[in-house]
Design brief:
Blueprint (H helix, E strand, L loop, with lengths): L8 H5 L4 H9 L2 H16 L5 E2 L3 E9 L3 E8 L4 E8 L7 H15 L9 E7 L2 E7 L6 H8 L4 H20 L3
Antiparallel strand pairs: 1-2, 2-3, 3-4, 4-6, 5-6
Length: 174
Amino acid sequence: YVNGIALGMFELKKSSVSVGEGIRQMLTNQQKENIQGFFNTMQLLMAGNVLGGRYTVQDRIGTGGMAVVYRAFDKKKNRIVAIKVLRPEYESDEEFVRRFSREAEAASKVSHENIVNMLDVGTDGDVRYIVMEYVSGPTLKEVIQQKGQLEPFEAVRIAREIASALESAHRNNL
């Protein structure tokens, strides 16, 4: 879906497909620009492409409501990073752009051992991104799926780490 219109990607890319041409003729110029921006974003975020002239995209490692997270290689610092990218369908939505920018600003204010550090913020064409340190290993969800119920001692340890991180965020008015 782009601006509320269900579109088949291949129909828009191939001018020889008559249905795709019919859809193209029904779209406003703004909708066509949004669709082209979506395709440009998707092409930029393919493995091997470089974002911001510096980050070589490796693979997608997570998704959320308004963003997708990729593992990438930072050519300047010679390290693996995580890059959170605003979903293409929200790039032209001022409210989502504002929320994404607030998240980046908030992340820059917190420094805590249990919160990943924000390293960079930028745009590349229409792509807005936040670069964070990459933490390898399983998520809490994956640990619980693998082990089942956690031992009480381990659950308390994890809860204390989370509470400590939240306390730090709260101290920074987040």
